[in-house]
Structures are given as C-alpha cells and as structure tokens.
Amino acid sequence: MIGKVLKYMRKNKNLKQDVLAKTIGISQQNLSRYENEQRIVSFDMIEQIANKCGYEIYFINKNTKDKFQANNLTRKDI
Description:
The chain is mainly alpha-helical and 78 residues long. The protein has a single domain, classed as 434 Repressor (Amino-terminal Domain) (Orthogonal Bundle). The chain is 47% helix and 5% strand. The protein has four helices and two strands; from the N terminus they run ααααββ. The chain has a two-stranded antiparallel ribbon.
C-alpha cells in the first residue's frame, strides 16, 4: 500500500522517478522498488519523499483527534 502512496505523491507533483531519486540521494531503481513494494522503505525515506513532493506526514489519534508530526517530537516526548 505504501508504494501506491509514494507513487501517487510523486506523480501528483509531476516528478519522474529519476529526478526525485536524485534529489533524495537514492537510485531510480530503489525508488522504483519502493513504489512497486519490492523493497521495504524506512519511515525516514517515506518522510523525505513526502517532503520533496510537498506533503507532510501527520499522525492523528482517532479518538481524541490529537495530531502531531514525527519531526516535532523531542527526546523528552518519547
């Protein structure tokens, strides 16, 4: 599923795989493998791809609707 999300974000920004891969410092082949779910992608890489495509990742508590971003966490929070 995450591969489809990564591909959607990239295509929605009209970026080619090779261009996006170069800007985040990976090979086009690795990005293709992430999008096709042939390789496990780390959360850090997901976040980098999202940011380069103009997206932010939020975590929302279903019950309380509290929202936070991973990059807003500090050591004392965890």
